[in-house]
Structure formats: C-alpha cells, structure tokens
Amino acid sequence: MDVKGHAALITGGGSGLGAETGRVLARAGAKVALLDVNMDGARAVAEEIGGTAIECDVSDANSAENAIASAREAHGPARVLVNCAGVAPAKKIVGRKGPMPLDDFRKVVEINMIGSFNMLRLAAADMLELDELEDGERGLVVSTASIAATEGQIGQVAYGASKAGVMGMMLPAAREFAEKGIRVMTIAPGLIGTPMLLNMPQEVQDSLASQVPFPHRFGRPDEYARLVLHICENVMLNADTIRLDGAMRMQAK
C-alpha cells in the first residue's frame, strides 16, 4: 500500500515509537491521527507533522470509539492502524513487600494487550467497509510486541505476558481478515532508545547496549518507524512478527 493520501491511526503517538512513526508516515503522505492520553505530546507532534491529536485511552471502549470517530471525521476511515501505546513497569511476582498487587498486573495487560485488541477491532470494522486497493488490499494493522514476549526477564511477568498476548492475537486476526484484504502484522522490538531507556543512568544504558550483538547500541525510533512504512508498502508481509533487536536474546536478568 502506498500510504499517500490515506488515513492512519497511531496510538501512543505523543512520544517515542508512535511519534516517530507519525513523522515517517506523514512524510510519506499519510493523513495521520495521533491518539494518546498525553495530549501535550500528541499536540506537539501533530503541529509538527500537520496531523491531528486526539485524546484516547486505548484500554477503554468508549474512549477508543470516540477517538476513532473523531479521526474518521477529520481524515476519513483509516487504512492503517499502528498500535504503539504501552507501559512497561518492572515488578516481581513476589517482592520485598509481598505478592504483586493483582491490579498492577491487570493494568499492564489492559493497556498493552486489551488496548491493542480494542483498537484492532474498531479500526478493522472501518477498514472492512473501504474499497479495495491494488492487490485487493483494504487495510493494515501493525501492533507492537517485544522480545520480552518470548524472553521476558525477572520483573517482566506482566509486560511479557501482555506482549505475548499481542503476538498471539496476530495469526487468528490475520486469518479472519485475509479474505477481506486486511493484513495484520506485529513488530517485536528489542532495546529501542525511547525516553523510557534514555532516562536511565548512563552506566545502565551502556550495560544494556553492550548486550546487543550488532550494532552495539540501542535501536532508534526511526528504525522502527521505517519498518512500519516498509510493511505498509510490502503487501506480502502478513501474519508475522518481525524482531527488531540487533540479534539480542535477553537473559534472565
């Protein structure tokens, strides 16, 4: 799909991977709606790229429905959804203060996994009503997992489970929508230089970066964003997870 002139929804669009994906898709000619609870960030990026900032809690059905309706009114039904919204708190199952509070686990799953499904179901419903493009394509959903989905470290039980769920949704969703020309893909990043990592002490950053076989550095948000654009343009990419990790395999801790 050539994204030029088509509408795209990006969750978590106010910072990090979502913001950079918005920039890359906008440069390619897409009409970008940046969905986020961080409206200051979303507005700043939207002003930069000529997009639209919309408040959205991806884990809430009404919030997501209203956000997609606002984006549809601004740009028309979206042909592309990129799920970047997520949280990554670290907490052991049983720590010094006892068992992890169940609500802490639930919150991560609700944002990362249920939020991705929430946006998928709503965006796909719009895509199904669109006319076919070249190759019979109607739309594309790209969700963000993590290498923690298969190699989660100590303290990542909630995060790893949520991202494994994102990966697990992909194949049945892609199979369901294949006959209607909607593709479903997942990207599983390793260590990407987003504010979450770059706010860590330098010695911690250096230690983490040294674990990446090649190149010996964090990935850059633009490398994620350019992969999203390539997935848009390469119609043969469907029902798969692409690791973006520099050959990294995470150890237990």
From TrEMBL:
Lineage: Bacteria, Pseudomonadati, Pseudomonadota, Alphaproteobacteria, Rhodospirillales
Keyword Protease: no
Family membership: Belongs to the short-chain dehydrogenases/reductases (SDR) family.
Domain named Ketoreductase: residues: 6-195
Keyword Transmembrane helix: no
Record-level Gene Ontology MF annotations: oxidoreductase activity
A Pfam short name: adh_short
Entry protein name: SDR family NAD(P)-dependent oxidoreductase
Matches recorded under InterPro entries: KR_dom (IPR057326), NAD(P)-bd_dom_sf (IPR036291), Sc_DH/Rdtase_CS (IPR020904), SDR_fam (IPR002347)
Keywords recorded for this protein, A-Z: Oxidoreductase
Protein species of origin: Ferruginivarius sediminum
